[in-house]
Design brief:
The chain is of the alpha/beta class. Helix content is 51%, strand content 16%. It has a five-stranded mixed sheet, sandwiched between helices. Strand 5 and strand 6 form a beta hairpin. The longest helix is centred in the C-terminal third of the chain and has 30 residues. It is elongated, with a radius of gyration of 26 Å.
Amino acid sequence: MKKMKDFLSHLFIPKESNNHRAKVLHHTNLFLTIVFLLLASFFIQRIKVSFPSVLGIKADISSEELLFLTNKERQNVGVNSLIFNEKLSEAASKKAQDMFDYNYWAHNSPTGKTPWVFIKSSGYKYVYAGENLARGFTTPDDVIKAWMASPDHRANMLSSNYQDVGFAVKLGKLNGEETVIVVEEFGNLNMPMARSKVAEVATATDTNALPENVQAVHKQPLINTSSLSSNIYYLFIIVLITALMLDMIIVEKKKVMRFVGHNIDHILYLLLVLILISIWGKGVII
């Protein structure tokens, strides 16, 4: 027990035995830690490819849940509920597959296809149409929250110009990374009517019956890759911040003179890295 205590003290607390600099903050140890993180990242990716049921992305999203949550947001602002449309869902499925096939993340395909091409090719002759895209999210709630937080996506979701909606939820590889893509296609076959009349005609509710073949991704690997990777980085950065804070407090208390950088700058930098990791760990929308 004493040996472990001495080891941890040597590792985190500046003292004479470590030249008044926590061992974890020495350049050699930092370099070895970075090498370890790179190797760990490499092996995680290899295991992810070879054993997807053990290590992979965790996701549980369905068209039914997306429809329910979309209509809930519309009802909150007094807009008619959307009706699930199979042709729009077919268009959404084609669009999602096209992104995987041509490896792009955009509304317009590198081949020149716009979202409206997919909608028309599915037999939906729209007067109004719109599209929301999301990727990297693992729950329907996170998808809807991200769309609602974006003015343009929110405008699509709450527009009274739309009466129909279709979804695609697909798992595949984009830029070499396994991810879940969600496509939401909006449409209206008719000219918009007065608000009161729309409320009478649009009778779809959140419990609107959906076809049995609605798209969904239900993947539950033993270990979630995204959370595992994030947790490793979080742990590494938190350990460094703790060591820097202890170093700063103890050196100031003992009035140790040395020529090193300002710990507070390093701490602020690491906090910024933590924030960036948190942002990158979330999905993206366009």
